[in-house]
Structures are given as structure tokens and as C-alpha cells.
Amino acid sequence: MTHPSTSSARRWALKACAAGAVLACSVGPALASNWPDKPVTLVVPYSAGGPTDVVARLLAVPMGQSLGQSVLVENTVGAGGTIAPTRVAKSKNDGYTILIHHMGMATAPALYKKLPYDPLKDFEYIGQVLDVPMTLLSRKDFPANNFQELQDYVKKNQDKVSLANAGIGAVSQLCGMLFMHQLGVKLTTIPYKGAGPAMNDLMGGQVDLLCDQTTQTVPVIKDGKRAKVFGVTTSERLSSLPDIPTLNEQGLKGFDVKVWHGMYAPKGTPNEVITKINQALNVALKDATVKARIADLSSDLVSPDKATPEGLRKHLEAEVARWGKVIRETGVTAE
């Protein structure tokens, strides 16, 4: 038989546990409703001054104004851009540590055998940000003056043609690999430690070809004295370079490469917090200063339907599948 005092103690304990459970369940929404009450850290996988860093710092000011707290940009560099997402994936899921990353989020699973995170499972999606087109250039004295001549020369002399890139796993490497894949050729690829050195050697005549972002190539193209341009890598012509045809319209059907950027938070970040960050992102994308600066970089801010968690999720899933296929077929690896 149960002693009355024991029974009462048990009932009290059960009530206390129930009350504690209710309190625990209410903590998340309470914190979300007060969020943010301190600065937010926006992690960038690349060094200061690079395209992704420039974009992050542009967005940080209007996002901070919208949130009522500073957005602090922090560069976490290394391992081909995989250290930053690893850090964010393991961060506390309270919304105070978020990530901006380019299409490397989609290519990393195929480039690395042992990736410390899963881009499709370890993050909450905030939204897409912008697209940076790319262009295909050659040294100034390369023996071709249009894309048809380039194709003919490359196919006949593929053992003599060099193709530079900004490093193993860089988007410029993937763009070059896709170019070779669709032409059915294998060129000598030369990885550099960054886009700057690759561009310098192209202009100096040390390498033949380079596929790189418009943030770096447009000034060279408009100068017209240091390199030749054979096409843009997007599906449509660029408003900043209207006279330069796409590679797609010149015969590389379906060729569409742009360096898209997205914003992420650790898995399990409350929906209310994701919504607030997304709203701040969309405010920033409409900011006049941001729009003008992005236009100067010959880049495009995404449409409102893409600057959403669902828009980024769908795009990332499609890009993981697309680039996984290309990387497997070309045999590219970052290891």
C-alpha cells in the first residue's frame, strides 16, 4: 500500500515536471519574439575584398538597420570555402551566426569525399541574394578572334592550349571544366591561388584562356587592350555588356554558369527568426546603395520570389544535382 505522503510527493513531482515542460516549450518562441537583442555575425568563407565579402558588407548595413542590431561580417577562410559553413553548421541555432556563401555550397559535396557538413540537411535557408555572371577570356594575342575560331583552334591544338583558373574547386575551374566537357576537349589546366594572379598571367600572356567573374573581368573587357572576350556564360546577354554574345547562343547549348549567392542559418533556427532575417535581407536587396553598387559590379540581385527560404532550397537542390553530375563526368576533385 502506498503511503499518503509518498503519493502526494509523487503528484507534486509530476505537476512540477509538467510545468517545467511547458516552460521549456515556451522558451523558443519567447526568445524568437525578442530576437535580436545583440549583434548578428554574418560569416563569409573568403578573404576580405573578394566578391562574396564585398556583397556581405554591402548587405550588412541595411540588414542591421532593419533588425535594429549590427550585422558584423566575419571572414572565416580556408579549405576551399568549407571551413565557414562547417563553423556555422555547428553554431548555436539561435540566429546570431549566419552564413553567406556562393555556389560552392552546391559543388562541395561532389568535390570533397569527406565533407564535415551536408548543405541539404545541416542548414535552414534564408534566401538567395544575387548572381554574378562570368566571361570567357583569352590572352590578347591568342590566335582566334571569335568563338567559332576559338572552338576550331582548341579542338585542333588542345595539347597546346592552357586554361587558367582561380584554384582547385573554384567556380572558374568548374566553368572551365564545363567548357571543355561541352567542347569535348582536354586542355592543360593551371590552378592559381586566386583570381587576381590568374588574370595577371592571362594579361601577361603566360596562359591562354580564363573563365572568371564579371566583377574582375568587366574592367579588362571595357579596356579592350589586355585580353580578348569570347562570350558570357549566362543564358542571356548582360545589360552591362550587351554586345558580347552568350556561349549558349554561339553553340554551347544549355551553357549557363553564374556565381549565385545564398544566405543560411544553422539547422533548427526558429522559423520566426528565419522570417526576421529574410525580411531584413529583402529590405537590403531594395536599398538604393546596394542596387547601385551591385550594378557597378555587373551583377544581378535576385527577384523577390528567389530571395526566400523556399527559393533557395529549390535552387540549391537543383544545383547540387547539376554540378554533381558535371563534376563526376569531368573527374574534378578538390583533394
Instruction: Specify the overall morphology.
Output: globular
| Averaged pLDDT | 89
Largest sheet: 10 strands, mixed
Q: Tally the beta strands.
A: 10
CATH architecture of the largest domain: 3-Layer(aba) Sandwich
Counting helices, strands and paired strands, the structural category is: alpha/beta
Amount of beta strand: 15-25%
Report how far the terminal alpha carbons are from each other.
Answer: 69 Å
Q: Which range best describes the helical content: under 10%, 10-25%, 25-40%, 40-55%, 55-70% or over 70%?
A: 40-55%
Spatial extent as radius of gyration: 24 Å
Sequence stretches where pLDDT stays below 50 over 5 or more residues: 1-10, 12-27
CATH class term of the largest domain: Alpha Beta
Give the ordered list of helices and strands.
HEHEHEHEHEHEHEHEEHHEH
The CATH homologous superfamily of the largest domain is named: Bordetella uptake gene, domain 1
Number of helices: 11
| Total count of domains | 2
Q: Which fold name fills CATH's third level, the topology of the largest domain?
A: D-Maltodextrin-Binding Protein, domain 2
Q: What structural keywords apply?
A:
about 325 residues, alpha/beta, D-Maltodextrin-Binding Protein, domain 2, 2 domains, ten-stranded mixed β-sheet, globular, disordered N terminus, Tripartite tricarboxylate transporter substrate binding protein BugD, signal, Bug_dom1, BUG
Task: Please explain how this structure is put together.
- It is a single chain.
- By secondary structure, this protein is α/β, with parallel strands linked by helices.
- The protein folds into two domains: 39-131 and 259-330, Bordetella uptake gene, domain 1 (D-Maltodextrin-Binding Protein, domain 2, 3-Layer(aba) Sandwich), CATH 3.40.190.150; 133-232, D-Maltodextrin-Binding Protein, domain 2.
- Helix content is 45%, strand content 19%.
- The protein has eleven helices and ten strands.
- Strands 1, 2, 3, 4, 5, 6, 7, 8, 9 and 10 form a ten-stranded mixed β-sheet that branches.
- The longest helix has 31 residues, at 4-34.
- The N and C termini lie far apart (69 Å).
